[in-house]
Amino acid sequence: MASSTKEHTVPESRHETQARTAPREPTTKSAFEHFHEYQRERPEVAALWCFGIGFVLGWKLKLW
What we know:
The chain is mainly alpha-helical. The protein has helices at residues 18-21, 24-41, 43-60. The chain is flat and about 60 Å long.
């Protein structure tokens, strides 16, 4: 019986998979910057969104 000696490499760390995740970083950074600009322009709307999201999460995740 002949055994095949194919090498199968499994990434052991995050550094080996950077090629696939590198293009996503500028998109994430620009989305964060966009939200930050929006928050500076309209702080009352951003505060109401945070309050609403916190209210719904607190209501749905209550401990009792």
